[in-house]
Write a structure and sequence with these properties.
Shape: globular
Helix content: 25-40%
Distance between the termini: 37 Å
Radius of gyration: 18 Å
CATH topology: Rossmann fold
Largest sheet: 6 strands, mixed
CATH superfamily: Vaccinia Virus protein VP39
Order of helices and strands: HHHEEHEHEHHEEHHHEE
CATH class: Alpha Beta
Strand content: 15-25%
Number of helices: 10
Oligomer: single chain
Structural class: alpha/beta
CATH architecture: 3-Layer(aba) Sandwich
């Protein structure tokens, strides 16, 4: 499948995003540990404000008006209008910067992902924290058996982990992040033990990859999963996931030490 522009249009499809995609405390623990003693934190591609620390001075940058509008309901600071590849800040303006599940959207123009990473490096003094998914580990989750074309879309959008670590000359620590069974952040792997959630349109609309899938294919995938849940076939194949307290799949945090 050819994807001309992997950047999702959140102004069109993100109106209910924050109702499903929220800060998960278990995942936030790893991010807060990575932020360490930083007093000033920049959040790029900040969306509705998930994972922003409450006890630091936070500046957020977000290009989508729809996503910026949801920040107030989440009691987050207003976001500056801007994009990752042209941050409106002086060099070394922040102790730490963060980019939470956003770098795969930074490819709207040629080399914009590289420009975004370079901008993070330019404005940050100590640490950069990037949360993303490893495209080489997407097959570890059972949904590849039900949504194969969706997973191929994700694989094409997410940058290789070594693309990021090589960019920062390997001054990085890559952490595999366990996802709790009751994960509050509704990305796909968050529902490893709650497959019925994929039958909810609002949940799928909060996962950007579905926006690149043809409607008839989406309907087919949802029906297949629904039928297997009703028949008990899903539980016969993957039912042990319902009782797994955590799941380690493709979710990664990359901590860059500058």
């Amino acid at each position: 499948m050819q994807i001309d522009n992997p950047a999702f249009d959140y102004d069109k499809g993100g109106k209910k995003y924050s109702a499903v995609r929220q800060t998960d405390p278990g995942i936030a623990k790893y991010i807060n540990e990575a932020i360490g003693n930083a007093k000033t934190v920049l959040n790029v591609g900040a969306g509705a404000g998930s994972y922003e620390p409450h006890d630091r001075y936070v500046v957020a940058v977000e290009p989508s008006a729809v996503m910026r509008s949801q920040r107030k309901a989440q009691s987050k600071v207003p976001a500056i209008i801007g994009s990752a590849d042209a941050l409106p800040f002086d060099d070394i303006s922040f102790d730490a910067s963060m980019a939470m599940l956003t770098v795969h959207h930074w490819q709207e123009t040629n080399n914009s992902m590289e420009k975004g990473l370079k901008e993070l490096q330019r404005v940050t003094k100590d640490k950069i924290i990037i949360m993303t998914f490893d495209p080489d580990a997407l097959d570890d989750f059972w949904n590849v058996n039900y949504f194969p074309e969706l997973i191929e879309i994700e694989r094409k959008r997410y940058p290789k982990i070594n693309f990021i670590t090589d960019f920062f000359k390997d001054n990085c620590e890559v952490q595999k992040i366990p996802i709790p069974l009751d994960c509050a952040d509704g990305f796909q792997e968050a529902y490893y033990g709650r497959p019925e959630k994929f039958l909810e349109k609002e949940v799928r609309e909060s996962q950007s990859a579905w926006g690149f899938l043809k409607e008839e294919i989406e309907d087919k995938y949802v029906k297949t999963l629904s039928d297997e849940l009703k028949s008990g076939e899903w539980d016969r194949k993957f039912g042990e996931h319902r009782n797994m307290p955590e799941f380690i799949g493709a979710l990664r945090i990359i901590v860059v030490n500058l």
